[in-house]
Every structure is written in structure tokens, then in C-alpha cells.
Amino acid sequence: MSNIVLRIAALVLCFGILFGFGMTSLTGVLDALAERFELDTAAQEILVSILVICCFIGAILAGPLSSRYGRRVCMLFAAALMILCYVLILGEPTYTGLLVARCGLGLGIGLSSMVVPMYAAEVTVARHRGAVVALFQLAITAGILIAYSVSFLFALTWPWTHVLGVGVVFAVAALLLARALPESPHWLAAVGQSKKARQVASSLGLHTELPELDESAQAHRDTEALTTTRPAPASASRRSIVSVLALCGGLFVLQNLSGIDGILYYAPHIFQTMGFDAGKAALGATLGLGLVNFLATLVALKYVDTAGRRPLLLYGAALMSIGMGMVTLASLYQWSWMGLAGLCLFIMAFAISLGPLPYVMMSELFPTAFREKGIAAASSISWLFNALIAFTFLTVVQWISLTGVLLFFLGVCLLSWLIAYLYLPETRGTSLERIEANVISGKRLRDLGRNE
């Protein structure tokens, strides 16, 4: 693996850690914050979900911003914004100040969640592309593990500001790495800077993709002219693009409704409900989940470009269903250790399937002319349902019990397997330009990864 690919991977790693840490760092200090600011259940849900809601807004803004100003500028802005917010947190803000800081973190995370996988897919050679993009999910799990580890080790001794403020280290690293990498050649070609695009593509080792890059840029300009001069025609290509959006958006909906968000945000509460003692026992079980999540994602990273997208998602969704079934039984009968085993199985299966693959698929399937808007739409859908879970989980558990919520998650896991079986294409080893040609020609979803 070349030096440039390693630098791209490091960038993806830092932004992914910021994602995972920012989303879950509150888990270990939520009780302390509830006591410090006298928060009821609704106020706790607001504190958790405000970041996710702003992630949704950031994902919506990501498409037009990255299209106009470029991927690199958006990444620089996201990193700088997160640095400012972590500095605010380290200053021990009031409850209102903490909400403002989490809003800013959400905007930065939402923006980077769309731009970074897209950038990585556009600047990485095809043989490493799947692994580098999937590294984003591994980094998210690393950020989650870091957040859980800091909470387990220091939540009872450190001020909550320090527990939450650790993320500033990764924000600074992300800013420095983004400054050291070039703009995406796909974006440069799309805005008419063909000479510079070819120079950057050559420096990135994309030699074999240079002719296809010119064709992709011309297709982008032709499509832009078409959409600005007259209404889009009802064509096979348009239907295919809508199908891609439906698949990618649907994968993110299934990802968020599978139960992963409720587990990550409220794991200590879930473990206490299943019979674990509050405090170190619940935090320790939560840390165990984070470790399993990270290790399983590491395995997925190794096999995403060899085992293929379809097998990973099909086998993963099946194992997720088994794990969630175990957790449901454990919740019903208060079998705490069976619940922990079921959650570990669920997390392992999620980490090799529905965790990384939606990011890989959305970065691969959208044509250049629609990539910013398509990925922004898919990411926005993801954050919308993520926010829904964060904002309602504790309340819904009070209404229908934890067992009822887990049964719903089980149904979503089963539906994920069915959707993958019917529609998911295999894109392993296929160039972005070949996939784009298949989409434009109107091929069905299952055939978009074919090279002929």
C-alpha cells in the first residue's frame, strides 16, 4: 500500500474517530450531567439527540457545499468547527453552552460523514477503495471504543468536561491531514479544471482511471447542462439513479432502525434493565460491547474487498437477527449474561455488514453528476432516523417496555436480510466509472457491479 493511500486512510481514520467519539462520549457521563443540571428524561434525550439533529442538518448542507467549494474545503471547515466546539466544552460551559457545543459538533460530524467517504472513494485506487472507505466505519467503532474506555476509566474521577473534551486531539489531527492532501480529481474535473485533475489523479496513482475520468467529467457537464436547461426526461438512467437513492437511503434507514443507535447511546441503561448493577458493572459491559464492535469491524475491513459486499451483508444480517433474538429473550426473562452474549453477537454481525457497507455502497453507486446530492440525501436520511432513535428511545421503552422495542429491532434485522438478497449489487473490484456507466445505461440494481 502506497504512502498516499496510507495518508488517505489516516484522514478517514481521524474523521471516523471524531464521528464515533462525538456520538457516544456522553454515554458514560449522562447520569452525572443529569444530576449536575437537574435533567429529567426528556431533557436527557434532548441533550443526546441535539447532536444527531445537527448531524442531519450538516448532511443536508454537505451536498451543495462540497459541490461548490470542493471536498477538501468542507473537510477543513468540519475539522476547524469541531476544534472550536471541543474548546468550548473544555471551558466548562453551562447547560445552554453544552447544547451549543454539541450542535456545532453535530454539524461537523454530519458534514464529514458525507464528504469523507466520498472523498476517499474518489482518490483511492479501485483495489484498495472498498477497504479505505470501510475504514471509516472501523474508525467510528474505534471512536466509540475510545469514548467507552475513557468513561469506564475516568468518568468517576475526571470532570465531565475532560471526559467529553478528549476529542479535540483527533479534531486537530484531522485538520492537519486534510491540509496535507489534494482536492479530489473527480471534483476538479467536474468544475472544468481538467489539467489539474489529471495531475492530481497521476499523483494519487489513478493512472488507469485517467481516460475514464475525462469521460466521467464530460458526462457530469452534460448532465448539469441537461438539468439546468430543461426538465429531466423519464429515462432508464433516471429510474436507475432513483433506484440507487432508494437502496442507499434504505440501507441507512435499516442501519439506524436495527437497534444499533439505541444500544450505543443508552447501553448502560439497557444493561441495568437486564439486571446488571449500575456504575462500573454497566459501564464495563458497555466497554465490552465497544471492544467487540471494534474487533469485528477490523475483520470486516480485511474481507470487504475479498469476500464481497453481498455475502458480508447477507450473513451479517442473519447473525444480527439471531443476536437480537437472544437479547429479546434475555430482556423478557432477565437473563443478563445471555443478553450480553446476544448483544455481542449482534454487534459483531453489524460491524461486518450493516455497519460499514452502506457507506461503501453510497460512495460507489452514485454517478459523478449526482454523487454530492445523492450521498447527501442518503446521509440525511440516516441522520434523520438516527435522531429519531436518540430522541425517543427512553420514552418508547417506558411506553412499550424494552422487550417490545427489541422485538421491533428484530423485525428490522430480518427485513435487512431480505432487502440485501433481492437488490444489493456486488461491486467488488469494479471501477467507479464502470459502475457509473451501468447506472446511466439503466441496468437493474443487482447488475450495477458487472464489468461487462
UniProtKB/TrEMBL annotation:
The chain crosses the membrane at residues 46-66, 73-91, 97-120, 132-154, 160-178, 244-267, 279-300, 312-333, 339-360, 381-400, 406-424. It is a multi-pass membrane protein. It comes from the Bacteria. The keyword Transit peptide does not apply. Belongs to the major facilitator superfamily. Sugar transporter (TC 2.A.1.1) family. NCBIfam families: SP (TIGR00879). PANTHER family: PROTON MYO-INOSITOL COTRANSPORTER. This is MFS transporter. The lineage of its organism: Bacteria, Pseudomonadati, Pseudomonadota, Betaproteobacteria, Burkholderiales.
